[in-house]
Amino acid sequence: MLKATLYSIAIATILVGSGCSLMETRIVGNSGSRVIARSGDYIVLRVGTEDAHALAARYLGDEDRYWQIEDANPPGAIGPGAEIIIPLQQGNTTAVDMQGYQTVPVLCYHRFGDRGTKMTISVSRFREQMQYLKDKGYRVIPLQDLIAFLKGERQIPQRAVVLTVDDGHRSIYESAFPVLKEFGFPATLFLYTDYINNGGLNWDQLIEMIGSGLITVQPHSKTHDNLTLKVNGETQQEYLRRVGQEVRFPKQRLAEQLPGVPVAYAYPFGDANDEVVAALKREGLSVGLTVHSGGNAAFAYPYLLRRSIVFGDRDMEAFKSLLVTYKSISSR
Fold this sequence. Notes:
- By secondary structure, the protein is an alpha/beta fold.
- The protein has 10 helices and 17 strands.
- The chain has 2 domains: 2-87, no CATH class; 100-328, TIM Barrel.
- The strands form 5 sheets. Strands 6, 9, 10, 11, 12, 15 and 16 form a 7-stranded mixed sheet that branches.
- The longest helix has 22 residues, at 236-257.
């Protein structure tokens, strides 16, 4: 698909096009990698002992951009003696091509425990799922990268996946966080603030998790009430005031207590309407997340992003079915 096409075009452009610098130069150091050709957009390289991480650190200035090199080349191409390309510029930030488009699954967890139930996933199954993501080449990205992708500001990896956890149960810290650290996977916690220090996670635990560099915390309302439903006897004006408070208060509370500024909001029960969306916009929040299953393309409406709940009483095949990262455009 994209990577084979990009590889062919880049090689042809660099080796045949004008304005390219052809060379056979040994890289400084003992890696044995050789630059064959260079343009303003690409380097053609014969690989020595360096892997994608080391090449990204050397040529892109950031080891974490290793995926840009992997995605630009055929699968398994990076190895000693192989000729590869290194893209020096961002690629297709919309991830749309003639055959289809990339879609980003956002997975939603709730509780973690010894045994799986509908809303509780066992720690062993959670670890199995994270191992599957790693083994099958999925790239777990922060929610902030997905937001930048939706804004057209950033290319993201192929096979990108976002992890989120709702509500703020203590099992996140006790059971999920150690697994996320084990794999180095980022995740976003969506918390309703009445639960913090009141049966759920406490502020010290949140600060510790944020300090790992893997966890970000975003609002999930104040009380976890369904914001699309009016309270008995509530007038429209009272309803709108309450919705505004359910959006404004947790955003302010998290900003006061934790590093960073909230930019996303997960709707309680995944439900939203025009009034709730308008409240998010007034508060300057960039995205709202539902629990309607499916992935998100670059053209997804940012205030109704899809998320797929990972149920603890389902098997690995059900988990795998949530990981659709590319959709072909049918001719029918």
